[in-house]
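Fill in residues.
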């Protein structure tokens, strides 16, 4: 760390003021984003100084940028970056992890109405984040303002298959038709959910099926619940929800099997999850096969069977994957699974 007056910048452009008084600077030709604290200390928050593209899912200081330009702060403290010559918009979450949220890296114009990461931008100049977490992009050479809608994720599902799915975040509109039946592109010409969406009822150990002509018994979609969904054709589902920057908790009141899912859009290592019972909390590994069974199980339509997930060496996966439903068995009453931010 150095003081601001002794630090060297090369063609600084975008500035953004944080709620704590810190000043963020797009140090463009150094291929970094830097922060000046209220006391005048400057640090790097993104970029390894090498012009290029890389590092998604890793600490932002280890990622490569290419002449970052505009900056925008989100309500949760995330920082969005117009990664100008990568033709992308990047986002650093409050834990310092960087991801791409818009742009496929190809200079051009395409992708409206679809996933933002599959759209083409042309030398994005600036970004701003609205109170609903929507990101607005100055797509300079396309002479357009583009919008990445807040709380929207797109998930491709193979047709002629069953899928175990879940909802990340808190529902914007909790009715099943609005949560699961937004197909892009094109919009679904019929209600694909009727008779094809099922929730497992732990208390009666049976399924509740959604029907568009009688939606009341099925009820609203609840974060943390898992669902079976039958898909006739290859589709892309648009989930509409609001993510939480805080740990989220899924409660299992009594012993037995539950169909649940992580209320996170991002993948989370299972070893970072916490299990609580009767006022005591333990890391997942310490609670496994004491309070909660390891492995969990998810259905892979590609093989037509179940795959294990957990912290044991024999488990096939060690993450809770975004949008994926799981079977879990609790071994005692009153169990809460706490899932941290990614």
């Amino acid at each position: 760390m150095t003081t601001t007056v002794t630090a060297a910048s090369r063609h600084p452009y975008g500035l953004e003021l944080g709620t704590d008084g810190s000043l963020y600077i797009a140090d463009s030709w150094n291929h970094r984003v830097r922060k000046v604290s209220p006391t005048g200390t400057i640090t790097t928050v993104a970029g390894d100084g090498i012009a290029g593209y890389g590092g998604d899912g890793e600490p932002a200081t280890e990622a490569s940028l290419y002449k970052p330009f505009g900056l925008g702060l989100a309500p949760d403290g995330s920082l969005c970056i117009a990664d100008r010559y990568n033709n992308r918009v990047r986002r650093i979450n409050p834990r310092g992890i960087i991801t791409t949220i818009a742009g496929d890296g190809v200079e051009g114009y395409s992708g409206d109405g679809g996933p933002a990461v599959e759209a083409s931008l042309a030398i994005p100049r600036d970004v701003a984040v609205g109170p609903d977490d929507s990101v607005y992009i100055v797509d300079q050479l396309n002479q357009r303002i583009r919008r990445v809608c807040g709380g929207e994720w797109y998930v491709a599902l193979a047709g002629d298959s069953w899928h175990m799915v879940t909802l990340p975040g808190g529902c914007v509109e909790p009715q099943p038709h609005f949560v699961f039946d937004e197909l892009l592109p094109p919009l679904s010409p019929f209600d694909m959910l009727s008779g094809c969406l099922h929730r497992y009822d732990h208390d009666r150990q049976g399924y509740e099926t959604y029907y568009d002509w009688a939606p009341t018994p099925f009820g609203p979609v609840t974060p943390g619940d898992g669902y079976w969904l039958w898909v006739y054709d290859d589709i892309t589902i648009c989930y509409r929800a609001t993510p939480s920057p805080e740990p989220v908790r899924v409660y299992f009141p009594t012993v037995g099997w539950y169909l649940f899912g992580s209320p996170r859009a991002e993948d989370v290592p299972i070893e970072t999850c916490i299990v609580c019972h009767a006022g005591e909390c333990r890391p997942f590994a310490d609670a496994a096969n004491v309070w909660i069974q390891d492995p969990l199980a998810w259905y892979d339509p590609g093989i037509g069977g179940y795959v294990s997930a957990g912290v044991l060496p024999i488990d096939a996966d060690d993450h809770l994957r975004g949008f994926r439903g799981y079977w879990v068995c609790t071994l005692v009453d009153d169990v809460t699974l706490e899932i941290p931010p990614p």
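The chain is about 5% helix and 40% strand.
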